[in-house]
Amino acid sequence: MGGDFxxxxxxxxxxxxxxxxxxxxxxxxxxxxxxxxRYTLRAVTMHEHRPERVLALLNEAILRDRTDDxxxxxxxxxxxxxxxSLRVKLASGGHPLPxxxxxxxxxxxxxxxxxxxxxxxxxxxxxxxxxxxxxxxLLFYTDGVTDALAPERIIDQRxxxxxxxxERVERAVIDESGPxxxxxIALLVLGVEAPAALTGERTGGFExxxxxxPQAAAxxxxxxxxxxxxxxxxxxxxxxxxxxxxxxxxxxxAESGTLGVELGIADGVVTIAVHDSGRGFEPPVPKRDxxxxxxxxxxxxxxxxxxxxVDSSAGTRVWAELDLPYEDGR
Length: 330
Description:
Blueprint: E1 2-12, E2 15-26, H1 28-44, H2 51-65, E3 72-81, E4 86-93, E5 99-101, E6 107-109, E7 128-132, E8 137-141, H3 143-146, H4 162-177, E9 187-191, H5 196-199, E10 205-211, H6 215-225, H7 228-231, H8 233-253, E11 258-266, E12 269-276, H9 296-304, E13 307-311, E14 316-323
Antiparallel strand pairs: 1-2, 2-3, 3-4, 4-7, 5-6, 5-8, 8-9, 10-11, 11-12, 12-14, 13-14
Helix pairs in contact: 1-2, 6-8, 8-9
């Protein structure tokens, strides 16, 4: 009883609370403190979402209501998702900092450490923000992992899925400590999936490199037409609209003379992507007024696709996904 804990729960539209921590000791008293921590966090987030304030209020509750001198470490994070990216705001109260695992294989700590909760009135808490793009992940863990190894040393491959990251860390801990590690182990991985065309086995599609000029959209539509027998006329017609909007947008904003168009079919998903050497941008809220020139194209993309987003890690890559079987009126 007691020991490690974690929790994930919604706190608003496209917003989630994520927490992980470790209570000192075992037994009934530790279990009681774990329950206090869990219920306090859920109660506090009914009116407060700033991570450093949430942990500060938890610290006050532990100092006020605990039955002995036990304490805990904890991280509290607020996760907000929007169009193929995640924004994470987090604070740590004496807990090992999570690791950001970038899609290109880079690993870096996230956040800033504070003091353990339940020992001092001022736990020196601070909130920091992390942006996760397609292919990135954020690994939360407890000190049962760091007692056995340095997790950043084994996360060294690109495009690992969230499940694969957790399995690799777990396997490494067991290899190091044996089948019964000395301490509890908790792992929590969140991230942004890379588009299916990047990670799945393709069953069709094409890649084009086009000159950035008005004729590019017509060339892309012609390539899409070649897939009519495979995808059906209704889906091909909608893909043509998507490609036209994405290519036209790229021609308008690209900083070089060429752009790339990809269409991939993998794992029941059709992925369309257009990439160029532009500086990238934050996806705006799509405007529903089709009379407006700015934002009209992204509104169409949002309406026709199941998911879409922007990857600005290397130039600009705008992608959209359509699930199969395809249905009209998305």
